[in-house]
Amino acid sequence: MYVAVKGGERAIDNAHQWLAEERRGDLSVPELTITQIREQMALAVNRVMAEGSLYDPDLAALAIKQARGDLIEAVFLIRAYRTTLPRLAASNPVDTGAMAVDRRISATFKDLPGGQVLGPTFDYTHRLLDFTLMAEGKTPDTPSPSGEEGRGEGESRVPHVTSFLNRDGLIEVAEPGDATPPDLTREPMELPADRTLRLQALTRGDEGFVLSMAYSTQRGYGRTHAFVGELRIGTVAVEVDIPELGFAVEIGEIELTECETVNQFKGSKTEPPQFTRGYGLVMGQSERKAIAMSLVDRALRWQELGEDFTGAPAQDEEFVLMHCDNIQATGFLEHIKLPHYVDFQAELELVRKLRAEAMALQEAAE
Amino acid sequence: MTDASPLDRKTWMAMLAKAPAVRLAALLPDLPPHSVLRQPEIGAVMVRGRVGATGAAFNLGEMTVTRASVRLASGEAGHAWVQGRDKGHALRAAAIDALMQTDAANDLTSRVLKPLEAEAQAARASRADKAAGTKVDFFTLVRGEDK
Q1: I need a labelling partner for B52 at 20 to 30 A (CA). Which of A14, A29, A150, B41 fits?
Q2: For residue range A112-126, what is the model confidence (pLDDT) as tens digits?
């Protein structure tokens, strides 16, 4: 039970004033601009967009600045802002097959058509601190080998790796559907959730939580034997049906990370032996999250595929979906620091009474 | 409409939406006389993806968008839906959409749309070249059983 308290207004004002000062830090150090954060802290910006569930790099950068770099607080700011926006439309589903890929790798096929493209990756770096960055060293331009052909206009489609397996019928097919998907920002999430609702929850879920859930499946809690069939990062166009015009128009471009896993599957009562799939799609360049999402997506499909429930947390839809949102989690966790004086008075009296009774019993026994 | 642009409306609207707002303003600083049919409105579009890239649609998350509609003195109505929260961008894009339905279309195509297209293509090509520079050919080392 909460109890209304009054007062403290001046203290609160002063606290916020001090917060603003601390946010700014040492005045002899130049202030960060939104564009600097957007351009140079891009992966933090991406995470705030993905978990804030709103693609707008400038706003995400602003939120990071305002939150002093606390990314969950920044996500909170974005979520709050998001609720003030009228929903003008829903886009047509983005076509990731037409993605302008910066990165595309497969752990299952070394010779995939179109090639393995590493892109701007941390992979193969030595994870040694680069002190030249501290000395404000200049980063070299990316060498672009002469004669190496980039994507030409016209060859805009990049086929998915799973489509190669699909030719032989070795992998399950994702049948297209045009049903309006459920939206957990409009209707409270109901369980059991179908796969489209689960994917919405996971893509905006906390990266750390989704990562740990995925890791638990790899360590044996709901094992799904995942290979990264394909991981791709790049931009896709977003197309919206414009009611005034009666046709669809591309209104912009967003960066996405997509991961498809290929999972061993021995078959079940309902399904033949074949490879099955897990899917991850996340705003921005967020490959750890996308891979994790695809593992958790696959683990949650045990019922649909006729697998056994082993009691693993990652198989437990309620456990995963009800705990993956870091704003809900933060809200409930941090509310316990708010005044609970009446609750606690009651507890205090109860403990005093129990103590008195116990001591009386003890004395009587002696 | 004797002097029609070779571009169709869907194409030019996409080009205007994806163009950087500052470039659009630099290429066409002065808007034609117009009345505003719909004041620029900032809102959100729910972006959808597909399960497994080809399957059922699901909600990925929203993006900011600004829409506006204008009418030229000569009567043509122009509409714009552009990513982000730049009201000036939406108004300018709507005005150009309207102008593209007039005799000015061909002139605008060469003065505004073609340069935008060339710049967008150059930016895409530059990224694609960088990506191509990171293309690898993995080869399998000799394995024990191959000896």
Answers
A1: A150
A2: 887 899 999 999 999
- B143 at interface of A, judged by CB pairs closer than 8 A: no
Structure tokens at A117: 């493209």
CA atoms of A295 and A212, how far apart (whole Å): 11
Q: Which segments of chain A are extended strands (E)?
A: 54-55, 87-90, 100-105, 116-117, 226-242, 247-263, 276-283
Q: Is B28 helix (H, G, I), strand (E, B) or coil?
A: coil
Longest Cα–Cα distance in chain B:
82
Q: Which of residues 20-59 of B touch A (CB under 8 A)?
A: 41-59
CA nearest neighbour of A53 among A202, A227, A208, A276:
A202
Is B47 in Cβ contact with A148 (below 8 Å)?
no
Q: Is the peptide bond before A113 cis (omega within 30 degrees of 0)?
A: no
A296 within 8 A of A217, measured Cβ to Cβ? yes
Instruction: Give contacts of B65 with chain A, Cβ < 8 Å.
Output: 88-89, 240, 251-252
Q: What is the pLDDT averaged over residues B87-106?
A: 96
Q: How far is A119 from chain B (nearest CA, A)?
A: 5
DSSP sequence for A99-137: -EEEEEE-SS-TT-TT-EE--S-STT------HHHHTTP
Q: Closest CB to B134: pick one of A86, A119, A260.
A: A119
Please give the Cα distance from A283 to A50 (Å, whole number): 5
- CB-based contact, B141 to chain A, within 8 Å: no
Decide if pLDDT at A141 tops 70: no
A chain contacts of residue B121, beta-carbon cutoff 8 Å: 153
Question: Taking CB atoms and an 8 Å limit, are A245 and B135 in contact across chains?
Answer: no
Q: Report in angstroms the alpha-carbon separations of A193 from A248, A268, A293, A326.
A: 30, 22, 16, 19
Q: Which residues of A touch B133 (CB under 8 A)?
A: 142-145, 148
pLDDT of residue A153: 42
User: Could A281 and B49 be called an inter-chain contact, meaning their C-beta atoms sit closer than 8 Å?
Assistant: yes
d(CA A366, CA A226): 66
